[in-house]
Write a structure and sequence with these properties.
The chain is α+β, with helices and mostly antiparallel strands and about 475 residues long. The protein has 3 domains: about 200 residues, Aminohydrolase, N-terminal nucleophile (Ntn) domain (Glutamine Phosphoribosylpyrophosphate, subunit 1, domain 1, 4-Layer Sandwich); about 130 residues, HUPs (Rossmann fold), CATH 3.40.50.620; about 90 residues, no CATH class. Strands 2-3-1-9-8-10 form a 6-stranded antiparallel beta sheet. A 6-stranded antiparallel beta sheet has the order 4-5-6-7-11-12, with helices on one face. α2 crosses α3 and α9 crosses α10. The mean pLDDT is about 90.
Length: about 475
């Protein structure tokens, strides 16, 4: 991963160079191969690089397009960049690097901002248009790469992580009580605000354009998930073959790299399948597993440690297997570090992820992960049955909302959970409205059949938890 940051003073005042340098330093852990800055009056960009493609200095960012019109800071990987590069060459474009960054720049220059919709990959992009004097922000379809911003009416500050935004002297740290109320309801945030008041996470598959005339930030959604139109003519055998083809294509594309690539291996179906395909692409794939100290564990909890299954898969595929064993003391030690990186309370499975990532970083720069399989393939049946028999949209919303009140239910928050001075500053009923907006954002969703209810559940989970 890389770290990106930027400051745009729409009031025309020049950016203090020290601010963007401090913001970039705060992102040092995201990329230690190189650092770069761009300063031009009221716009400044910063970048910390983790070199994956074209390891030479030619890949340094911020990077300019060949005609100087576009200047970009970018974090991510575009899996179809070679196809797009070949196409642009045929259209008369020339390239001086082997990076996907340059492909984005020249594609924007040739096609305009609609070129973003052709990118197959994960990305967070900040790009300055020198002719329009406008700043564009883009985020990938699944929101894999983070991109936060803060706007006070005269200055737009963006970064890969909130901690960089906190370096701006005009920002004052306050808790967003509405976001906190949302978290206490769902143990998650379904909106794109954060616990830091005024700091917003750019939604997935969204773009933003800001220039000197901007008085507010407007999100433009350029893509959305669609589970509402299944192909009823496709046979099971055809679906099986096509899923296999697309899966193998996705894994192979994500192994495009000029540095070593590894794979997380939990012993489950998702990571095991990915490792199987990936191991066929390299001579000896490095795999990484996180397990738990089971000395004092009995009963069903014994099954929580998947090292044995991972070792069997590794042995069968001939991978170079590394393991990390965690105990209760490790969880306690990691808590503050995990929160520092997440900048959120949604800890979940972040403890083992933190340790396994730390282990993998000692051997590889890129690691494949099986995250998201359940959201794509309906892996949570105990959730779906709650709405399976819903008669209409209202019935669906009532049942599903009651299930997703995971921390403090509405009744408790309305009565005695908050002190009076806090209660006056929040809308207790807002979480229900937030929940429904996830669905009503997409007018194509229907609520008439059990199949549609499951499709809607998949849509909800992939838009929020994934």
């Amino acid at each position: 991963m890389c770290g990106i940051a930027g400051v745009f003073n729409i009031d025309g005042n020049p950016v203090n160079e020290q601010i963007i340098r401090e913001m970039t330093i705060r992102l040092a852990h995201r990329g230690q191969d190189d650092e770069g800055h761009f300063f031009q009056g009221n716009i400044a960009l910063g970048h910390k690089r983790l070199a994956i493609l074209d390891l030479s200095k030619k890949g340094k960012q911020p990077m300019r397009s060949s005609n100087g019109k576009w200047i970009i800071v970018y974090n991510g990987c575009i899996y179809n960049f070679r196809e797009l590069r070949d196409e642009l060459i045929k259209r008369g474009k020339s390239f001086t690097t082997e990076t996907d960054t340059e492909v984005i720049l020249e594609g924007l220059d040739f096609h305009g901002i609609s070129f973003i919709e052709r990118l197959n990959g994960m990305f967070a992009i900040g790009v300055w248009n020198n002719e329009e004097k406008a700043l564009y922000l883009f985020r990938d379809r699944f929101g894999v790469k983070p991109l936060y911003y803060w706007f006070n009416g005269k200055t737009l500050v963006f970064a890969s992580e909130i901690k960089a935004i906190l370096e701006h002297p005009d920002y004052r740290i306050e808790v967003d009580l509405g976001a906190l109320n949302e978290y206490f309801t769902f143990q998650n945030l379904f909106t794109y605000r954060t616990l830091f008041k005024g700091v917003t996470l750019l939604p997935q598959a969204n773009s933003v354009r800001i220039d000197a005339s901007s008085s507010f930030i407007k999100h433009h959604s350029w893509w959305d998930y669609d589970f509402s139109q299944p192909d009823e003519k496709m046979t099971f055998e055809d679906a099986q073959a096509e899923t296999k083809r697309l899966f193998e294509q996705a894994v192979r594309r994500q192994m495009i790299s000029d540095v070593p690539v590894g794979s997380y291996l939990s012993g489950g179906l998702d990571s095991g399948s990915i490792t199987t395909v990936a191991s066929g692409e390299v001579d000896r794939l490095s795999t990484f597993t996180c397990g738990f100290d089971m000395n004092r564990v009995a009963g069903v909890e014994v099954n929580y440690d998947e090292r044995r299954a991972a070792e069997l898969i590794s042995n069968y595929l001939g991978t170079e297997q590394y393991e990390q064993v965690m105990n209760a003391g490790d969880l306690r030690w990691a808590l503050s570090r995990v929160i520092w990186h997440l900048e959120d309370l949604k800890v979940g499975m972040s403890y083992p992820n933190y340790y396994i990532s730390r282990l993998a970083s000692k051997f590889v720069k890129v690691c494949l992960s099986g995250t998201g399989g359940d959201e794509l393939f309906g892996g949570y049946p105990w959730r779906y049955y709650r709405v399976f028999a819903a008669l209409n949209r209202e019935f669906f919303f009532n049942n599903y909302y009651n299930y997703w009140q995971r921390l403090v239910p509405d009744s408790d928050r309305q009565d005695s959970f908050y002190r009076n001075e806090i209660k006056k500053q929040i809308d207790i009923n807002e979480p229900r409205q937030i929940f429904e907006r996830v669905f009503t954002f997409n007018p194509s969703l229907r609520y008439e059949t059990p199949e549609q209810h499951i499709q809607n559940s998949l849509y909800f989970e992939i838009k929020t938890f994934l």
